[in-house]
Write a structure and sequence with these properties.
This protein is an alpha+beta fold and 474 residues long. 39% of the residues lie in helices and 23% in strands. It has 14 helices and 13 strands. The strands form two sheets. Strands 7, 8, 9, 10, 11, 12 and 13 form a seven-stranded mixed beta sheet that branches. The protein has a six-stranded mixed beta sheet with strand order 5-3-2-1-4-6, sandwiched between helices. A hairpin with a 2-residue loop joins β12 and β13. α2 runs antiparallel to α3, α3 crosses α4 and α4 packs across α9. It is globular. The N terminus is likely disordered.
Length: 474
């Protein structure tokens, strides 16, 4: 890592490997409840009942205690209603939120970075029509909880379809509709549940509890939005790809015009995609939505004028409020501006360990590659590197990471430990320092491999746009 007197990087790498008080107990309570959902809560057996009670005990002494205790009693008796399931989902989310907060505090302490205040969740909204649809969604989610993952079949899972269809036309309900649609699709692909050899217990419980909480009034009210003017210095791009959708999220440091403390911000673009569009072809789908991708690819800053931004640090991107700026090397940004950039707070419903993604600069490590993958040896500790999350839509590879001497990465947490996801690395080639970025092809490239990949994807993207145009004309 980078020592204190040299700036940048993680200042206290040892903190990432020390145990966090209460972490194991909180996760054990979540795991116990998640296990109860496997067989369903219609007639819980003793082991399932114990898991529900353990969840209630874990929030005893909190404002949730009375409602969750009542919900646990009703569930153990096989008489739980939707309100009781909501209370249990809230308790589960609160525990995972506490885990998120503890790990974020530990990571922030290790980095030595200032933290912003609490996020404003925004205002509540909704209509009577929306309330009816959200109640229908709660009813379906309640049926899932009673049946359990082992009991799912196509008839039960198909019950989400009319709810999703009714929600999608309403922009205010699109977030809930998308979550329900994706969740139902995963369950449908796994039906019947009785034949499953392996159940993604934590994931499905995450999706179930989040979907349930998002049906509550005001849960998805419009976030509080401010505007910012100044210079945006990109750090790197995190690409999240699924069979039918792709998102590129740019992590950056924002420097306010006229001075003031720098802050960490994000800007994202997403697009639907066919499964035939992969690799560098993804950028063709995303470029029309985010001019910032070109700036990342060219290694330039962007000048923002009254760009909307949420309290969580997400820029509500508007191309008319941004223009290309001067050259800005991301590694130089990471060394100079990143250490003092304040991180934004996380909205209450987004507090989950899987959401942790802290931009960091790593230097002074020894990279190693073996059968367990790539890792950085830091102060005697092995920090795992998640090379599986490096997108195929760029020149960054596991081999480049293993040969690197500096790395811009996202600090994440999973499976009981911190690890890093590389966004860019610096390695030595013929005695010269060369940077390799995961998002180097985002705005286009003359790199031979990138040009070949773009050409291969052009036909599929053109066909997709033509079909979409025909549908709109009809």
């Amino acid at each position: 890592m980078v020592p204190d007197d040299e700036g940048g990087g993680l200042m206290r790498a040892d903190l990432l490997f020390d145990p966090v008080d209460g972490l194991d107990e909180a996760l054990a309570a979540v795991d116990a409840f998640d296990a109860a959902l496997v067989a369903g809560l219609l007639r819980p057996q003793p082991d399932q009942a114990a898991g529900v009670v353990e969840l209630a005990d874990a929030v005893a002494g909190t404002p949730l205690a009375a409602r969750v205790a009542e919900a646990a009693d009703k569930t153990v008796a096989g008489a739980a209603g939707e309100d009781h399931f909501v209370a249990l989902a809230a308790a589960r989310a609160a525990l995972l939120g506490s885990v998120h907060d503890a790990l974020t505090a530990r990571g922030t302490e290790a980095v030595g970075r200032p933290v912003a205040g609490e996020a404003d969740p925004g205002g509540a909204g909704g209509t009577d029509h929306a309330a009816n649809l959200l109640a229908a969604a709660r009813s379906w989610l309640g049926d899932l909880a009673r049946t359990g993952w082992q009991g799912i079949d196509h008839e039960l899972v198909g019950g989400a379809a009319p709810v999703v269809t009714a929600m999608l036309p309403d922009p205010a309900l699109r977030r809930q509709a998308t979550l329900l649609d994706g969740f139902a699709a995963e369950l449908a692909a796994s039906c019947p549940g009785a034949t499953l050899e392996r159940i993604p217990v934590r994931r499905w419980a995450d999706l179930w509890s989040r979907a349930l909480l998002l049906t509550l009034p005001g849960a998805t009210g419009a976030p509080a939005v401010d505007t910012v003017t100044g210079r945006l210095l990109p750090l790197g791009i995190d690409v999240q790809e699924h069979a039918t959708a792709v998102q590129a999220q740019v992590h950056a440091v924002f420097e306010p015009a006229g001075g003031g403390a720098p802050r960490l911000v994000r800007a994202a673009a997403s697009a639907p995609k066919p499964d035939t569009v992969v690799g560098a072809g993804l950028w063709q789908l995303l470029r029309p939505h985010l001019s910032l991708l070109a700036a990342v690819s060219e290694g330039r800053a962007m000048d923002l004028d009254a760009m909307p931004v949420t309290a969580e640090g997400d820029l509500v991107w508007d191309d008319t409020r941004a223009r290309m700026g001067e050259p800005a090397d991301s590694l130089a940004t990471a060394r100079v501006a990143l250490p003092t950039a304040a991180a934004a707070a996380t909205a209450p419903l987004d507090r989950h360990p899987a959401r942790i993604s802290v931009p960091v600069l790593l230097e002074g490590y020894e990279a190693e590659q073996d059968d367990d993958g790539v890792a950085f040896r830091i102060a005697g500790h092995r920090l795992a590197v998640d090379t599986d999350r490096i997108p195929a839509a760029g020149p960054l590879t596991a081999e480049a990471v293993a040969a690197s001497g500096a790395c811009i990465a996202l600090l994440r947490w999973d499976a009981g430990e911190f690890h890093v996801q590389p966004l860019a690395v610096e390695k030595t080639v013929r005695k010269k320092a060369v940077a390799v970025h995961a998002g180097a092809w985002a705005g286009g490239t003359t790199d031979k491999a990138g040009v070949r990949a773009e050409k291969a994807a052009t036909g599929a993207v053109d066909a997709l746009r033509e079909r979409a145009g025909r549908l709109l004309r009809n």
